[in-house]
Amino acid sequence: MWRSVTRARPVLPLCSLPSAPPVPPPRPFISRVRRFSQLQHFQEKHQPPSEPQPRQTVLPWEDEVREGSFRWDDYNVCIVGAGPAGFYTAKYLLKKEEMMQIDIIEKLPMPGGLVRYGVAPDHPEVKNVMNDFEEVMNNPRVRYFGNIELQKEVGINQLREWYHVVVLAYGCQKDKMLGLDGEDLEGVLSARRFVFWYNGHPEAFSVQPDLTSSEEAVVIGHGNVALDCARVLTRKISELEKTDISDLAESALRQSAIRWVHVVGRRGVVQAAWTNKELRELTQLDGVLPIVDPAEYEANMNDASKKEMEGNRGKQRMMPIIETMMKNWDRREITDKKIIQLRFLTSPVRITPHAAEPWRADGIELRRNRLEGEPGRQRAVPLDGPDAEPEYVQSNLIIKSVGFKHDAVPGLILSEEDGSVCHHEGRVELAYQSPFQIIGGLYVAGWLKRGPKGVIASNIPDAMETANTILKDLWARERIYISFRSKGREGVVEKVVEDLRIPRRIVTDKDYFQTKNEEIRRGIERGKTASKFLRIKDMIQFLDKSYRDVLDKEQKEISVRSLLIHGTTPLLTRNQRAPEGALLLTSGSELDEIINTERPYNPSSIDGKDGVLLPVQYREFAIRQRSEYIGLGYMLGMCVFIYYCMYRIHVSGDPGRPDEKWI
Amino acid sequence: MPPPLPFLRRFNTLSASSAPKLRITFASYDGSESTPCPFTAGQTMLDVALEKDVDIEGACGGQCACSTCHVIMKEEDYGKFPEPTEDELDMLDLAMHRQDTSRLGCQLKLTEEHDGIEVKLPAETISQLDGPHVPTGKE
User: Looking at the DSSP assignment, which residues form a beta bridge with residue B70?
Assistant: First the structure.
């Protein structure tokens, strides 16, 4: 039995034996990052290469420029992220180099980043920076593409193939965690989500903070964002409803029951990160009483803190503001105003779930601290002894405002300390390598570069530095990665759309201005400065609709034009109103009159006549057509003249000189 | 009255053009570059600088909400302007390279009295921002 089976196998003749596959040379040692990057590059192509590729000699991080393989007519720069960092970088690049061509891509449809979705709605003067950014977008050398997400719609290596320079300026997309029990309960929000919620960020559409169940709210953190949250929670709705606050947030805050907001920080006054302007604003609010417990203040003003304060003008000027708040302390029981309590030397211990509904937060346990250490590096240490009794605050809304974190781009190693990308003067480099290796053509700006801190103005020196570095490299033709596949910026959008698996509407700068105007229009209807679109879906729907309207209008005009050319069918009958933007003709002589005199045509004058409806553009069309007739006539005349000359030659055999023989 | 024709303007001795021109100078921090800018009374220092394309940002549009129009005055000129408000001082605290005679350009209204003064723009903030590059990772 066994034998018969073996005999049944076909025997291959020797000549047709497939030759052994070539043994690949031993693979050189490649670091994990490189291998990952290669793998990613491979995946981007969707399918394995059918024929052997030429060996790649230009590694993405090699400092090599191939002259001749690329035309240096202009510098193509792509900026990922349309926030302050990206726009300031673009601004300085445009200012210093005329050949600069910049594309800005953005995950959300609308540009502006934290200027649009981070700055509190009651600070409209801060949002004036947007005018600067709109100027950048209006520059003919800049194109804006919204609704494209890095690593989803387009890969970082793809961008590097298309552009000379890619600038990463997408900031921080994640929140720092506190590491507490119950941090993931319902009702515990990160400040990022809360801020996005009241600013109408599309990602925060589903956020529904519970403002009605309890009278107290807790904000953890001592920064400007924490003060923003506390202020929005307590400010009078009559003031907020006039701003561009999200419509959902407005209606939720209208029913808010919160009247006491605790702003909790583990260290003291001197160590707080807020700025005086925001703190002073609290004392000037109508209907809000900011308070500070004098006992807490005394506890944190130890010798080291006083020493820290000595050299710092801003901190010294903060003290009178805090003192005003301490004077308010006694009025806390009798006032009918909403209260913001700034609490120092207090740390959250755990967030407790609700007894009946264990999925949502019901309160937070706080613990007292004391400061320990040298001036400038004091730490909060939990108290022990009788003071260590934890305090319980019943609250259904707990906002963590303890900072942001970076979202890693695969293939880039982030430094460990603050999470920012490892860079040198803005050039991205691979960390943990010796010597440091620069990734050619890749740069960073903004929070990704210097960590999640600072105000909008902090972006200015930072963007200047990155722009200077980029220009230095471009002018010297150094450290710019140029692939053999470099195509420049032409066809980027088409490329992206082609590669998409899920179709996405790409939003351009024109769309942005259209959407913005629509938002302002909707806002005027509701008595606000603007009423933002809360979902990407709505925004795209609006854009598509207005786009379709424009198409329809064009279509109508074309049909009118064809009617006029091909026949004399009157479009309007007696006493019918002409639509706006249309010319109305009753006779050919009137058309001539309109074309020649360029007088504005008054459609109301057609009463009692039949007429032909014309789009306004017809005037240019008719003028052009007339000039074509003139040209044709001229050519005809020339032909007749030439024919006449030929005839003369034929008759006399010599054209002769016209002045002798023609007369 | 219709405006005088351009070629007649130079003969018109009565119009405002014959008034002495007011001038303010913006100098870079080290004094290597200076831009004289004409101004009319009532303009703010930021407006004057933006007209002449001086390297000054003015991101918030003159609302005292950022510190990007920071200028440094001479000590003798500092007293010629009214005292800064608390809001301005708050913003100045955030300005880089702040000095005792620092002010925000958007808050300084210029009058005839300020003709001929010179202000300095703060130092280039680029090199001092991050300090020398320090490798942070494992070697």
Answer: B104
